Amino acid sequence: MEDADAQGPSGASLPVFVFPSGIHFFVDEPHSHKQVLTLYNPYDFPLCYKILSTAPRKYSVIEPEGTLKPRCCVDIVIRHLAATVKANVGRSDKFRVQVQKHSEREVTGRKDVQATLHQSRRDAEVSEAQLRFEGTSAPTLRSRSSSTAPQQYSFPPPEYERQSSSQRTGSIGGGGGVAAAQQPLHGQSYLVVLAAIFCIAALMLPTHGDGQANSSSRVPEYLHLSVPQKLVAAYILGLVTMLLMRH
After folding, report:
1. 35-85: per-residue pLDDT in tens?
2. Domains (ranges, CATH) in the chain?
3. Is residue 115 within 8 Å of 78, Cβ to Cβ?
4. CA distance linking residue 23 with residue 25, whole number of Å
5. pTM (whole model) above 0.85
6. CA 24 to each of CA 65, 100, 245: distance values in angstroms, whole numbers, following the listed order
C-alpha cells in the first residue's frame, strides 16, 4: 500500500466537494451494502480524480479513477464486500478522494470520507447519541491516538463487472437538492415524492403569456409560470423519476 503522505504535496489547497461526508453500511439491510459517493466539479476546468482506501480488500469501487468534466458530478459506487463478517461491525475505514487539474501531475486537493459498518440503524443512532453525550474529550483522545500512526491508502480491487459511472451536467450551485438525491431513499422517500408532486403541479399551472388559456383560468396571475420555469420543473421531475427508478 502507498502512504497517504506520498500521494501529493502537503500544501494541497483545492477544495474537494463530495457527498455524503460519511458512508454508513448496515448489516441487516443488504441493499445498504452498496452506497453512492458523489464527487462534484464546480470549477471551469476538468479534474482528474482517484479514490483510495485504508482497507482496499473490504470494498469494491466502480471507476476508482477518472476525469470529471467542468461543472459536472460523478456517482461513484462503493460496495462493502465483507459486511457479513461480524468482526467488521463497528469498525470504520476511510476513503481518500484525491483530485488534480487535468494539466498537472501534482495532487491539488484531497478529502477523507469515513465509512462505518453498523449492525443496524438503531445501533448507529445509539452510538451517535453516546458520542454526543461523551462530549469533546473522547473524540480528542481518538484523534490523538490516530495521529500517532499514519494511515495507509491504496486502490480498492477493480470491479469485475465494470459499470460506467454517470456524469450529470447542469448547475451545481444549489447543491442541497442534487446532493440529497444521492442518499438512500429510506427515511427520505417522502421528500422525493413531495418534490415530484410539486413539479407536476407546476407543469399543470397556466403558462404566462398564453392569453387564451389565461382568460378562462381561475388561477391567480402570480401563479402563472413562464416557459423556462416549466422547463426547469420538467427537468427536476425527470431527475426525481430516474432516482425513484434506480432505487
Report:
1. 999 999 999 999 999 999 999 999 999 889 999 999 999 999 999 999 989
2. 2-171 (2.60.40.10), 189-246 (no CATH)
3. yes
4. 7
5. no
6. 22, 27, 22
